[in-house]
Amino acid sequence: MIPQTFETERLSMRPMSAEDSAFVLALYNEPNFLKYIGDKKIRTIEEAEEYIKTRFRPQIEKLGYGNYLITRKSDGLRIGSVGIFQREGMDVHDIGFSFLGEFEGKGYGFEAASELMKQAFAHFGLKKISAVTSKDNVASQKLIEKLGLKFKKLVILPDETEELMYYEKENA
């Protein structure tokens, strides 16, 4: 059985749900999210709720894993998200992460993503994990490499124009 929640020393992670709509609205309109991940055109809480219901929930229901809300255990604050996604145009499921600006650069990304990768190899049945990031997102590149993923090639995803850096890691 696939675990639904995960914990690290400082963080808790659970599948994103409709009750996280206000957080998704804030996160998806953060300057770094818009710059590096893209504008998902979410401008209202209702649009955020619809995005969660149509984009996140179906994968969790189909595969048992997907996008997770990250909360800080010390105060329960919602600080970011981390997920493993089955993405169109990619053969290998990829890991992605994003944080509210005030929580970037504090080690939360590595802590959450490394735990999710551990779970993915142990419980999700994945043999490989990939990651993609833009060429100018140096912070993301450093985190991806710290997680043990190796740069393989440049890719362009379906319906996109930007060339992205593609990384991969096999289960050891």
Structure description:
By secondary structure, the chain is an alpha+beta fold. It has a single domain, classed as Gcn5-related N-acetyltransferase (GNAT) (Aminopeptidase, 3-Layer(aba) Sandwich), CATH 3.40.630. The protein has helices at 21-27, 31-36, 45-63, 108-123, 138-146, and strands at residues 6-7, 11-15, 67-72, 78-85, 94-99, 128-134, 150-155, 164-170. The longest helix is centred in the first third of the chain and has 19 residues, at 45-63. 29% of the residues are buried.
**Can you tell me the overall shape?**
globular
Adjacency order of strands in the biggest sheet: 1-2-3-4-5
Series of secondary-structure elements, N-terminal to C-terminal = EEHHHEEEHEHEE
Give the distance, in angstroms, between the N- and C-terminal Cα atoms: 21 Å
How many strand units? 8
Q: Tell me the radius of gyration.
A: 15 Å
Question: Poorly predicted ranges (pLDDT <50, ≥5 residues)?
Answer: none
Tally the structural domains: 1
CATH architectural label: 3-Layer(aba) Sandwich
Q: Strand percentage, roughly?
A: 25-35%
Number of helices: 5
Q: Just give the CATH class.
A: Alpha Beta
Round the mean pLDDT to the nearest integer and report it: 95
CATH topology: Aminopeptidase
Could you give a short account of the major beta sheet?
Answer: 5 strands, antiparallel
What's the oligomerization state? single chain
